[in-house]
Amino acid sequence: MKYALKLTAVAALACVANATLAQEVVVKIGHVAATSGPAAHLGKDNENGVRMAIDELNAKGVSIGGKKARFELLAEDDAGDPKQGTAAAQKLVDAKVNGVVGHLNSGTAIPASRIYSDAGIPQIAPSVTNPRYTAQGYKTTFRMVANDAQLGGTLGRYAVQQLKAKSIVVIDDRTAFGQGLANEFEKGAKGAGGNIVKREFTNDKATDFTAILTSVKAAKPDVIFFGGMDAVAGPMLRQMKQLGINAKFMGGDGVCTAELPKLAAGSLADNVVTCAVAGGVEASQKATMDKFRADFKKKFGSEVQIYSPYTYDATMVMADAMVKAGSADPAKYLPVLAGISHKGVTGNIAFDSKGDIKDGALTLYTYRGGQRAELAIVR
């Protein structure tokens, strides 16, 4: 009889557990970035932004369609390689994720976007700036930051109008991001009356730039623009100093990181570098961003690199759309996401008909005393 009572008790507990599970919806959020290779510090920064958002959502006990939601992170590493990027995308589709935040790089996000589109899964890219990403016409594709046409064009005009550059050399790393940004910079500089005296290219794994920089030195440029990432820009700056090249150095958000002074190994003189980040917060948003930075450092023991606030906001805006739609089903919350207005740590988030962020900001920086220093926020 006691044994029968025990069985009855177990069965009752099982019924309670099943009832609890029936009242819970599991929401899988995929994230893809280069968490290995030279850009791993940026990829991990992005991943931690998503992780922070998911932990907060679970702590709050968010409900979707009357059921408590439990958010899960499915994180993939694409190493910045397009083939690995599409493989990671397919893996997330097969896992039936409810949405994807990523990828870090334009070169992986663009081919992956077709896979997400075919599956009907919303993709919010936190740091992708190549205009082609949203120009493909996919309804599932969204971007959190201004694109290269805005960023590159602004830097090109700044080189001519503010830095008074008479002669400019442009170098890119031949990635979708680097080459696209360099092209837009060149357009902006030429449009402002600048003279591009030389165009060179390297690759995103290169460490020796002696041949390129020797040729560049002979051109006597006022400004050298590099389209690429900090892992390449750092050694390039070091070798520029060794060769006695005194030109100003410019770059986009891949260059504009907290790690750049370390990667340049002490070769970064004050006010030599001018760079821009796709994104930025106005003075009214500063306190919110400062709190995010402090909370992030407390949680992960590291400073924000660039885009973790944007991956955090991307995750939160995706969850907000699910709550407002009353469903985590991509087909049901996608239309809500497309028309959303969400107040995040980076500001107000809303998308245009292409999926681009509305009224995207850019932040111009330089470096002083081995620290990144803000110059201005422009739109």
UniProtKB/TrEMBL annotation:
GO biological process assignments: amino acid transport
Record keywords: Amino-acid transport, Signal, Transport
Pfam families given in the database record: Peripla_BP_6
Span of the signal peptide: 1-22
Tagged with keyword Signal: yes
Family that this chain belongs to: Belongs to the leucine-binding protein family.
Name of the protein in its database record: Branched-chain amino acid ABC transporter substrate-binding protein
Residue stretches making up the Leucine-binding protein domain: 27-368
